[in-house]
Specification:
- This protein is an alpha/beta fold and 527 residues long.
- The protein folds into two domains: 64 residues; 344 residues, Alpha-Beta Barrel (TIM Barrel), CATH 3.20.20.70.
- The chain is built from 21 helices and 15 strands.
- The strands form four sheets. The chain has an eight-stranded parallel sheet.
- Helix 7 crosses helix 18 and helix 11 packs across helix 12.
- It is globular, with a radius of gyration of 25 Å.
């Protein structure tokens, strides 16, 4: 390979210069010494396994780490932004990297955020904190119609397809999930050998392309679905209605990227461009959606089955709730994907302006299910820039039972946000199908990092809850999260937002929900 050849040539040149210095002139040392240093450094970079950038870019890759060391002077140029557009007081990537490397530590001098700024949110500590639970709680996924419930971890790997990320990245994520006892969502690209080989628990996501269970015409293949869903590693099945990055449109995988392995996982022809439609063929009404969820659960042998969506019209979601009531059937879980989330490539207009942010999406789904008396049958997952323990606790206050992380998990396997995913030239081997680049991602090292990150983040969430006097997520309440309105005023979530009582929509809908509830039709998705 080119980089190996360059390093080898540098070492040979250093040897020649050293011989010349010994036999011709000592001035050759000015060439021999730098060449020796660069050659040895390049060789070390190629052989080490901790940093994918250095494996792909020996010597040159050290410039990135130099910038990290002088980050206090450059931080404003590289600052991250959180879900509502305000700057993070700590670089979230640094938190993830440190936890993944097992070097997470406390920092002095308090927060860097203006705590009196409008929009600042904070959790309420208790004067009587609790002991941190020794064993993280798990969430039981499975309603009354589920024959094989699953214990979901508080934080799991969110949807990222094989094809969008490399085989080595999938292996590291799944091995980390297996080692840490959490779940790995396959994304809509099908179940590949890299998902199955490590033995981690899988949530098989089925999108509009029905990859892995499709006919040649692109329709749903029930027999193929039943065969793959029966695999022991598949613990849950998730139907993707939409995703936060680009709700309402499908994806395109260019034919040049559809190699034999990807074609086999997706059940499509090799070398041919693959298009995911923007809509599903198997249903067109809320009632048909509920019927299909029931059918998927039956075909899977009774495994937990649900759907994922980026919330749009509240009226349409209420129509699905009415369909659940009418049919006496519910999904076992619903994953709410925030419009601010999504690691997949998307048109900028969609990423910035289409879809409901995660806070409002969670509140809509949670309150709708409570209002129709079905919340105890359906668990809610949250996905959208969840990277820290604070993120996880806040989302559970807002109505979620557990969380999924994609971007943070990519950081854990080495992503540096070079934003070259769509070019197939990812410098860390995370989002490329180029085998020369992907080999730089050392699976063993990144497996441990994924496990460490998930474990440390859940531990952080439990420690935060304990400081609030809570030992279980079910004890979290809206009044425990507050938002500053102006420099002199803050309100808790129980007063900022409306929270429905169990069955309230069936008995007497509040004025703010009444019009949407009346217009919701279980037999059509009205706009």
């Amino acid at each position: 390979m080119i980089r190996v050849g360059i390093v080898t040539l540098t070492l040979i040149s250093a040897l020649v210069a050293a011989v010349a210095a010994a036999g011709i002139s000592a001035y050759w040392l000015f060439a021999a010494l730098p060449l020796t240093f660069l050659g040895l450094l390049g060789a070390w970079d190629l052989l080490q396994t901790r940093h994918s950038v250095l494996r792909n870019y020996p010597v040159l890759g050290h410039a990135r780490f130099l910038l990290e060391r002088i980050r206090p002077e450059l931080q404003q140029y590289f600052i991250e932004r959180n879900y509502d557009g305000r700057p993070f007081d700590r670089d979230v990537r640094s938190i993830v990297y440190e936890r993944a490397k097992g070097t997470d530590a406390e920092e002095p001098y308090g927060t860097e955020r203006d705590v009196y700024q409008s929009g600042y949110e904070f959790l309420v500590p208790s004067m009587a904190p609790c002991a941190v639970p020794r064993t993280p709680p798990r969430v039981r996924i499975g309603g009354p119609d589920c024959a094989r419930p699953y214990g979901m971890a508080l934080l799991n790997v969110s949807a990222m397809s094989f094809g969008s990320v490399s085989a080595n990245a999938i292996l590291a994520l799944n091995r980390g999930a297996a080692a840490g006892g959490f779940a790995h969502d396959t994304g809509e690209g099908g179940v590949s050998e890299y998902h199955l080989r490590p033995g981690g628990d899988l949530i098989w996501e089925i999108g509009t392309g029905y990859f892995g269970c499709r006919t040649e015409e692109g329709d749903f293949d029930a027999a193929a679905f039943a065969d793959k869903a029966a695999h022991d590693h598949v613990k849950c099945v998730s139907l993707k209605l939409s995703q936060g990055a680009k709700p309402g449109i499908g994806g395109v995988l260019p034919g040049a990227k559809v190699n034999a392995e990807i074609a086999r996982a997706r059940g499509v022809p090799e070398g041919r461009t693959v298009v995911s439609p923007p809509y599903h063929r198997v249903f067109s009404t809320p009632r048909e959606l509920v019927h299909f969820i029931v059918r998927m659960r039956e075909l899977s042998g009774g495994k937990p089955t649900g759907f994922k969506l980026c919330v749009g019209s509240r009226q349409q979601f209420l129509a699905v709730c009415k369909a659940m009531l009418a049919e006496g059937a519910t999904p076992d879980f619903i994953v709410v994907d925030g419009a601010e989330g999504g690691t997949g490539a998307a048109p900028l207009e969609f990423a910035d302006h289409v879809g409901t942010p995660l806070t409002e999406g969670l509140l809509t789904v949670h309150n709708a299910l409570v209002g129709v008396g079905l919340r105890d049958r359906v668990k809610i997952g949250a996905s959208g820039k969840i990277a820290t323990g604070i993120d996880l606790v806040k989302r559970m206050v807002q109505g979620a039972d557990y969380g999924n992380a994609a971007r943070a998990m990519m950081f854990a396997v080495g992503c540096i946000q070079a934003q070259r995913c769509h070019t197939n030239t990812c410098p860390t081997g995370v989002t490329t199908q180029d085998p020369r680049r992907a080999r730089a991602l050392d699976v063993s090292d990144k497996t441990l990092r994924v496990q460490r990150f998930q474990e440390a983040t859940v531990a952080s969430a439990l420690q935060i809850m304990a400081s609030m006097g809570v030992t279980d997520p079910a004890q979290l309440r809206p009044h425990m999260l507050r938002r500053r309105i102006d420099p002199c005023t803050d309100h808790s979530y129980d007063t900022l937002y409306e929270w429905l009582a169990p069955g309230q929509l069936l008995a007497e809908p509040p004025v703010s929900w009444a019009a949407d509830w009346r217009a919701a039709d279980p037999d059509r998705f009205t706009v």
